[in-house]
Amino acid sequence: MAHGLFANQMAYVGKPPWHGLGTKVEQTVNAKEMCAAAGLGWLVHKKPAPGARLIDPERQIHDRHLILRDRVGSEKDNVALGMVGSGYEPLQNHDAFKFFEPFVDSGFANFHTAGALGNGERVWVLAKLKEQIVVADDDPVDRFLLLANSHNGEGAVSVRFTPIRVVCQNTLNLAIKSKGKSAISIRHTRHMDRHLERAQAVELRKVIDKVFADAAEAFAAMALRSLGRGERDAILEELFPRTETQLKNRDRPERWRRVEAILDDGKVTPRKTAGSLWGLYNAIIRDEDYRQSREAGAGARLERVWFGAGETLKLRTLDLCRGFLRKTA
């Protein structure tokens, strides 16, 4: 999968993203307008793959299909995004955006950013919920929902709980504690749009306040828990183990030093919580969000921190911090 930001385009509310790309829209934007501003007004469709076997002559269903994206701009042909089985049904971009319409119409949320990665394989919509989590004085965390939809057959439609710490723009990730899952997932099947409505009306609205309430409780406890040097090192050791040579020489790995530098930086780490578990947690998250890597382009970074190794690390770090609180209570 190509990890660039699709067509170097996205839509955003408020300040421009760190990469400076995209179209600014008003906070009152609706689903149709947001989809268009993000450059996602195109459609995808299924076509029998070369050599596919016809398994239902009456409905012309084959065992393998290509997912093709409409031509965009100067492209000459439809672009193949992936290959899927007979039961896969695409979710059009405009339908994905509609998922948030009731939230927006009721004032519970507003659209924040939207775009796609690669050739359009993965589309995302980020919606900001009303009310904040206030962890400590002048340290609020905004609450977001991230809907992601893939057009290449790799993964279901997912809705993630994605808080963002305002002071440093760290993108946090939460799991549904009772289920241990980082997202609500809905498979690409015939009646997927109905399942989206059901998830929104029943499951999502039931769990959303619970997930963020659990997070608020954990964040507050982390902010109150001061760490000694040994405790901080133990957490870093668990996440980023030292090599035998580093242990022998008592060397501190580069990643440890970067995290410590973030803790010492008053611009991104408030002094009041710099020595706390909350401070360490956010320093680890910030390092993951903004570290130098081999990835090229804005889309590659989003892919990693929202859906890839970065998401995995963030969830593991939060779980480790919660476990530390339980053990040391």
Largest sheet report: 9 strands, mixed
Task: Tally the structural domains.
Answer: 2
Mean pLDDT across every amino acid position: 89
Question: How do the SSEs run, as a string of H and E?
Answer: EEHEEEEEHHEEEEEEEHHHHHHH
Care to describe what's here?
This protein is α+β, with helices and mostly antiparallel strands and 329 residues long. It folds into two domains: 5-207, no CATH class; 219-328, no CATH class. It is built from ten helices and 14 strands. It has helices at residues 31-37, 93-98, 101-105, 192-224, 229-239, 244-249, 254-263, 277-290, 298-307, 309-328; strands spanning 5-13, 23-25, 44-48, 54-56, 61-62, 64-69, 79-85, 109-117, 122-136, 139-150, 157-161, 164-165, 170-171, 183-186. The strands form three sheets. Strands 1, 2, 8, 9, 10, 11, 12, 13 and 14 form a nine-stranded mixed sheet that branches. Strands 3-6-7 form a three-stranded antiparallel sheet, with no helix packed on it. The longest helix is centred in the middle third of the chain and has 33 residues, at 192-224. The N and C termini lie far apart (45 Å). The model has no long low-confidence stretch (mean pLDDT 89).
